[in-house]
Amino acid sequence: MSIPSMSELREAARVVALPLVTRFRGIETREVLLLDGPAGWSEFSPFLEYDDAEASTWLAAAIDFGWHDQPAALRARIPVNATVPAVGAASVAEVLARFDGCRTAKVKVADPGQSLADDIARVHAVREAIGSEGRIRLDANGGWNVDEAERAVHALAEFDLEYLEQPCASIGELVELRERLADWGIPIAADESVRKAADPLAVARAGAADLLVVKAQPLGGVRRAVQIVADAGLPVVVSSALETSVGLSMGLALAAALPRLDFDCGLGTASLLAADVTARPLRPEAGMLPVGRVTPDPHLLEQHAAAPERRDWWLARLDRCHALL
Could you give all domains of the chain from N- to C-terminal order, each with its CATH number? Predict the structure, then answer.
């Protein structure tokens, strides 16, 4: 992959700060760096706590999407799920209302400072809201040990779970939990064990998961992610990293390029943003999102431009990560 010069990237860069509708992943504002590349707009948005080595993979994805042709799209629209942060049960209906027509809900559980009782109340509220035909998947972000995860599954299985995403942090724990839950019929999905791993295929080789959650930016771009999916040989869910609609268009390009897409994708997260960089954000309509490039509106880029010191911080990060490519 050819890499543009740092001066070219600086010229193409726009840094924005977007408020969230509700606190998510411990933040209330999402900062991202957008790049106006020759192939179209792209996004570089590793979370603030990620080190440069991890963030550089996200930059490789942004460059690939903004400077190079992408795989052919095999579908024009992608079915997506609603995402329910670790909110109180009373707020669940309000969150779900932002995801038009979505019949699958991914519910955050095992949030620091919350209890299993909080999780049960939230999942119960989701089931009440989407009805018996809706699908519920849980995402623990590796927050449980094996015993805690097994206990949680026993308590939450009554809500008819589609799958359990990253219940434990390590591959060894996932293997053990899968063995313990063999008779429960609840699939295990791996997320962090794929996107944060030096070897994203290790979890598949270990038999630690039934399906993989893949994200375009953390895996180095659409083309690399397509190859990882092919090599893993497992069903996948394409998901997002709380990106703007520009970043989501990269995830949609990945979902559109995969030969098989058996699950609703976690790409509806623009509904968690209180603002976006386009007047037509990629929010679900009838549970679907269209595949295609997104071009930001200049006045929205200006309106949501990050403070000068934050822009400088992102440009310095861009420079460091560029040096690692």
Answer: 6-70+299-324 (3.30.390.10), 77-297 (3.20.20.120)
